[in-house]
């Protein structure tokens, strides 16, 4: 029995909708399937505008353009994240200012933000790691006090909520990913969420190569022209058709993943009590989406040996981010404020377990049983 780390879920209707897109003979972006996906994401998140993009990376790049990030502007963010959170701003000359994460949720430690704000600070980019919400109330309070923008990298956070508010729609701008490794997928794919009415038109322009093509098609202007700096950030209709098959089932996919997450959580409860590992922590008022189940191994355990031992019994597990602050580009392009003890510690101890929609209870038991035997032999 081979247990892979991830198996992309298919609802079964993907090819049916792709055939429709093919029959529509409208294959570029912003056709009927893009519109359906847009409306559905707006309905789920309550944001004023959701713009489909070809990736979360693209959505973050539009966010940086929308915020007029200029060379030397500082953006506060965690170091424990994917490179795209930082790259989007660095592409505009922005400087990532890395702060440490909370030991419980592994999200940006909001208590460290205020101390690193300078006159150059423009935005706080938060990352909802594993689809578990950041402490948005406090982050929004700080942003308001210092007039900073809040960008949510909600790549992993689709369908999660913070005190009832959908992630991605809480800050000024939010970004989702529909990459194959996320919960709802289209191979590559993403969306930008825009709450602020005053930014919607510019977001549409930036996404369409810097032109007002959308206004042209709406009949608002009689020719479309170059309005500002932009790029091509929209997905084609084949991708949107695939995504539509997934979005239709977003609730049931999320519920299934949550059930699997809860099984892991129960199976590993006693091991946590015995000090063999630490399980994820979800704070009150936070509803996650079952994106990821991870454990933190004891410091004394060599993680690579655990991964290798699990691989020998056909179970694929993986670690996660190499912190950005100490990566070659992070050293060159970013600033690190204060100790990064939690980031460094978590990066070395985290182990992500197989989680996909059709994993069986038996497979989950095998993962937990094997993991515990291996850790016990090492401690
Ligand atoms: C997956 C991911 C991204 C990148 O998403 P793409 O759609 O592949 O561009 C960015 N940030 C985080 C936190 C992610 O997990």
From TrEMBL:
Organism: Polynucleobacter wuianus
Stated family: Belongs to the DegT/DnrJ/EryC1 family.
Active site per UniProt: 182
Record GO biological process: polysaccharide biosynthetic process
Record-linked InterPro entries: DegT/StrS_aminotransferase, PyrdxlP-dep_Trfase, PyrdxlP-dep_Trfase_major, WecE-like
GO molecular function: dTDP-4-amino-4,6-dideoxygalactose transaminase activity; pyridoxal phosphate binding
Keyword Metal-binding among record annotations: no
Gene3D superfamilies in UniProt: Type I PLP-dependent aspartate aminotransferase-like (Major domain)
Short name of one Pfam family: DegT_DnrJ_EryC1
Family matches, as PANTHER family: DTDP-4-AMINO-4,6-DIDEOXYGALACTOSE TRANSAMINASE (PTHR30244:SF34), TRANSAMINASE (PTHR30244)
Name of this chain's protein: dTDP-4-amino-4,6-dideoxygalactose transaminase
PTM annotation (N6-(pyridoxal phosphate)lysine): residues: 182
Superkingdom in the source lineage: Bacteria
Annotated keywords: Pyridoxal phosphate
């Amino acid at each position: 029995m081979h247990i892979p780390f991830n198996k992309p879920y298919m609802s079964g209707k993907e090819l049916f909708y792709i055939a429709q897109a093919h029959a529509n003979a409208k294959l570029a972006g912003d056709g009927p399937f893009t519109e359906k996906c847009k409306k559905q994401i707006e309905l789920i998140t309550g944001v004023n505008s959701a713009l489909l993009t070809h990736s979360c990376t693209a959505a973050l790049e539009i966010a940086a353009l929308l915020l007029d990030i200029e060379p030397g502007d500082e953006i506060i963010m965690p170091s424990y994240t994917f490179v795209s959170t930082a790259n989007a701003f660095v592409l505009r000359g922005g400087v990532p200012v890395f702060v440490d994460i909370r030991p419980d949720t592994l999200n940006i430690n909001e208590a460290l933000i205020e101390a690193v704000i300078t006159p150059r600070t423009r935005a706080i980019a938060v990352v909802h790691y594993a689809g578990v919400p950041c402490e948005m109330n406090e982050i929004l309070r700080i942003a308001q006090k210092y007039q900073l923008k809040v960008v949510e990298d909600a790549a992993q956070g689709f369908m999660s909520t913070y005190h009832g508010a959908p992630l991605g729609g809480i800050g000024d701008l939010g970004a989702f990913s529909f990459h194959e490794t996320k919960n709802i997928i289209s191979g590559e794919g993403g969306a930008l969420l825009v709450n602020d009415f005053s930014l919607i038109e510019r977001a549409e322009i930036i996404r369409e190569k810097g032109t007002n093509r959308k206004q042209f098609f709406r009949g608002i202007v009689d020719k479309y022209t170059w309005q500002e700096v932009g790029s091509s950030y929209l997905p084609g209709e084949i991708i949107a058709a695939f995504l539509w098959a997934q979005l239709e089932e977003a609730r049931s996919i999320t519920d299934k993943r949550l059930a699997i997450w809860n099984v892991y959580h129960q199976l590993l409860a006693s091991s946590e009590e015995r000090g063999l590992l630490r399980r994820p922590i979800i704070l009150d008022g936070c509803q996650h989406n079952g994106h990821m189940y991870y454990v933190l191994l004891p410091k004394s355990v060599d993680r690579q040996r655990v991964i290798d031992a699990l691989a020998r019994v056909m179970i694929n597990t993986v670690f996660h981010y190499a912190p950005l602050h100490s990566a070659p580009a992070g050293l060159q392009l970013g600033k690190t404020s204060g100790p990064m003890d939690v980031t460094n510690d978590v990066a070395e101890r985290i182990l992500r377990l197989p989680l996909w929609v059709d994993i069986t209870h038996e497979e989950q038991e095998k993962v937990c049983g094997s993991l515990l035997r291996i850790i016990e032999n090492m401690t």
